[in-house]
Amino acid sequence: AKAAGIPVTAEATPHHVIFTDEALRSYDTRFKVNPPLRSEEHRAAVVAGLQDGTIDAIVTDHAPHSWDEKDKEFNIAPSGFVGLETSVGAVLTHLYHTGCMDLATLIEAMSVRPATILHLPAGVLEEGRDADITLLDLQTEWSVDASTFYSQSKLSPFDGMIFKGKPVGTIVDGKIVMKQGEVLA
Length: 185
Known about the structure:
The chain has 185 residues and is α+β, with helices and mostly antiparallel strands. It is 25% helix and 18% strand. The chain has helices at 14-18, 40-52, 67-70, 87-96, 103-117, and strands at 11-12, 57-58, 133-143, 162-172, 175-179, 182-183.
């Protein structure tokens, strides 16, 4: 559609970059998402689409559910999980540190293009614009511990995984709102 000049956009999630339908063999409802996880061929196509710009944005698909909601038979459990607190670490680990994508392209996909698509005055560092910035430590290795998430949901298929790279500070509208992983009141 893009090659034909049709004005469409596309997005992908960190979990569709990392996991395949092999994760569903366990029937662990943390892996139940919509659209569902697919084959390795599909996962590789998502990465290729991000690399060549066919896919515009990397989004969290933040759809948190409590354990009571997800602790059901697989076919009736809701789709989704908390995605906000792991998205940066997941893409840095599985796209940047593997050499699949450079940092500038990841920033484009996670900030600049989403703002452009939504016609928001954001996603760029420019005089006169709101200072909305995330500071990254590209080398820190950390273990995902969903029990410490700020979200009310504590379920994540990334729980226990080791990521390399994480946000260490967030500034929103010129105010520091997160420093060293701690949200400031």
